[in-house]
Amino acid sequence: MIIIGACLAIGGNLLISVSMNIQKYALTRLENQGFHAETSHDYLKSRLWWLGIIMMVCGEVGNFMAYGFGPATVVAPLGTTTVVANAYIAIVFLGEKLRARDVLGTYLIIVGAFLIVVFSTQSNTRLSALQISEHLLKPAFLVYLGVEVIVFIAVNVVIHYYGALHVILFILPAAILASLTVISSKAVSGMITMTAAGESQLMYAVFYIMIVVILVTGVIQIRYVTRAMQAFQATVVVPTFFVFFTVSAILAGIFFYGEFNGLTFVQIVMFLFGCFCSFLGVYFITQGRTGENSPPLDSQYQTGPPKALMPICPFPCTNHLVQPSDDDDDDNPREVEMKSLVEGDETDTSKLIMSNGTGKSLFNPSLQMTSLDTKTKTSLHMSDFTKDSEKRGTSTKDDTT
Question: Could you list the residue ranges that cross the membrane (predicted)?
């Protein structure tokens, strides 16, 4: 059973890697044809893009089925397959150079995967709906869930008051939610397998509750990973998220499914060493790969201002899509107008006059856009600064005379 689960996980991750790069190729081709995929829905007309989506869905189904045949402590760490596949697809099809650290990282991931499969539990816990309901009320799991809730709230409080101090502040909540996703995915997959074998589990409410948990936690994870991609480089976010996601999946398997029960001390140590090798391999492969002419292959989200951040792929998944290059965001009308007024840029000002047709400011009709003396420019600049400060809830004093 565990071999079937491992094969499904590896095959699913390989399929996802290929699908993500097909989607990126389709988006790049549309960009070369003059379409802007980030501001329109032209990519929905691309057959190649839809081929990538279909392949990605098949890969996700494979990952989902893997939880029904293998322990969560085995299936989750095998996600390293995606990182390795992305790296070598970039080398073969995108012309990136094969680095020594890529080879070293690959060897480490292979060794880690081997140790994880060999020294993990050799039995797969498949629970019925009634057993899942009982496990949800176990003291060990309730304590684990309580700690997760406290940490989740504490991290969000820190983010609210202090902002993005470190990438972990965004990755940790995503990993906490991922642990619930893993628990629910394995539960639903197991119940579907039992139903297919003749023991129907579809009449129990816990089956549908778990499906809702999968959808909700998956969508919210995207939000946190998006914010992490906005504030930090993908080469930092991807390995950090993989490590935290894997650790959370292992803890979920331990506290909810008891997957470490019966393992010897040596087995546990070797299993954890295999995880460490996988983490190190992911670090070696992902670090230093991003460049001006070589966008990282491990980002599902486009970069840009917060309002423009959105998943390229419309499905909630935690895999990695190619990150497109940044677009210039200097065409905000108000920013152009204020820059023109303060710096005296007559070209941009004339464009605004023609677009308005009245010779007046788009945002302040009483203001003529012709000639401004230094005093007026300074007043405009200070007025705009004061308004921005008031929006942030800060008090400012007008010291100008």
Answer: 48-69, 75-94, 103-121, 141-159, 164-183, 203-224, 236-258, 264-285
Structure token pair of residue 399 = 């010291």
Instruction: Identify the pLDDT of residue 36.
Output: 61
- CA distances for 146 relative to 71, 108, 132, 151, angstroms: 23, 35, 18, 9
Cα separation, 365 vs 370, in Å, equals 13
Structure tokens belonging to residue 209: 């509750």
> DSSP letters of 51-103?
HHHHHHHHHHHHHHHHHHHS-HHHHTGGGHHHHHHHHHHHHHHS-PPPPHHHH
How many other C-beta atoms are found inside a 10 Å radius of the C-beta of residue 373? 8
- Give the pLDDT score at 93: 72
Q: What residues contact 376, with CB distance under 8 A and at least 6 apart? A: none
Amino acid 61: pLDDT: 86
| Helix residue ranges, H only, 233-373 | 234-255, 265-286, 333-343, 346-356
Point out the residues of the chain with pLDDT beneath 50. 291-338, 341-342, 345-381, 385, 394-401
As a 3-state breakdown, the chain gives helix, strand, coil percent values, each rounded to 5, of 70, 0, 30
> In angstroms, rounded to a whole number, what is the distance separating the alpha carbons of residues 396 and 387?
10
Beta-carbon contacts of residue 242 (< 8 Å; ≥ 6 apart): 79, 80, 83, 279, 282
CA dihedral 341, 347, 350, 356 (to 10 degrees): -80
- Contact of 207 with 304, CB cutoff 8 Å: no
> What is the number of alpha carbons within 13 Å of residue 226 lying toward its C-beta?
20
Count of CB atoms situated within 10 Å of the CB of 93: 10
**Other CB atoms within 10 Å distance of the CB of residue 364:** 13
Q: Are 67 and 259 in contact (CB under 8 A)?
A: no
Say whether 370 sits in a helix, a strand or coil.
Answer: coil
pTM, two decimals, is: 0.63
Whole-angstrom Cα distance, residue 261 to residue 259?
5
CB contact at 8 A, 320 and 20 = yes
What's the confidence (pLDDT) of residue 305? Answer: 34
Element (H, E) at 291: none
Domain ranges, ordered by start, for the chain: 2-308, 333-391
Q: What is the predicted pLDDT for the residue at 37?
A: 52
Distance between CA atoms of residues 198 and 240, nearest Å: 42
